[in-house]
Amino acid sequence: DPAVLPVVKSGVNHWMYDYAAVKRFGLDPDRLPPNSHIINAPRTLSHLYQENPGTVKIVLGAIVLQALVIAFLVMNVLRRRRAEAALREARDQLEEKVKNRTAQLAASEESWRNLFETALVGLYRTSTDGRRTLAANQAVADMFGYDSVEGFLAEFSPADAYTDLQDRQTLIGQLERHGRVPSIELQVKKRDGTPMDVIMSAT
């Protein structure tokens, strides 16, 4: 008898909607019929975690580790760049100091040379053995009867210029003992052999 057959008021079927269609038509998922299913939806991290938590943990751990490694490398690069910048700055400062000091020394040398060459007293510098004249000014060249400094440097022999050779030994001895000779009276010979009394100092 059909009247005794049970009436099934709910079925096993459910409303199913395609994710792309829902998005295309601008449907609100919250306003879909109850128990509706959306298929072909993008897989979220929570879905993946529910399906395979171990794999998700490994992947996340690898990502975090990679981020830490990248951060460490970036910090090293930044530190190296700062160090290189500091080195460049220090090098530039040192070069500037060397340049300034070189300019000062050049100016000082030029000033000394001008003073040496234009001094009214005779000045000359010799080798330690007294055989060579290394530098001289015009005043000393004139005193010894030379026309030019060049001629004086080429011909003058300090060791042979003393009338009494013992005077040179006395001068050298005082210089070695005291480091300087403030004043000593000696007799030397001009270019033509004429004797000349001089007051000499040495350092």
Can you give a write-up of this model?
There is one protein chain. This protein has a two-stranded parallel ribbon. Strands 3-4 form a two-stranded antiparallel sheet. The chain is an alpha+beta fold and 203 residues long. The relative contact order is 0.05. It has 6 helices and 6 strands; from the N terminus they run E-H-E-H-H-E-E-H-H-H-E-E.
Q: What percent of the residues sit in helical stretches (DSSP H or I)?
A: 40-55%
Contiguous low-pLDDT stretches (5 residues minimum) are: none
Count the helices. How many? 6
Strand content: 5-15%
Biggest sheet strand line-up: 1-2
Produce a short descriptive summary.
With 203 residues, this protein is α+β, with helices and mostly antiparallel strands.
Task: Provide the fold topology.
Blueprint: E1 16-18, H1 19-25, E2 37-39, H2 45-51, H3 53-118, E3 124-126, E4 133-136, H4 138-143, H5 149-155, H6 165-178, E5 181-189, E6 195-202
Parallel strand pairs: 1-2
Antiparallel strand pairs: 3-4, 5-6
Helix pairs in contact: 2-3
Give structural attributes:
203 residues; alpha+beta; two-stranded parallel ribbon; two-stranded antiparallel ribbon; 6 helices; 6 strands; 15% strand; rod-shaped
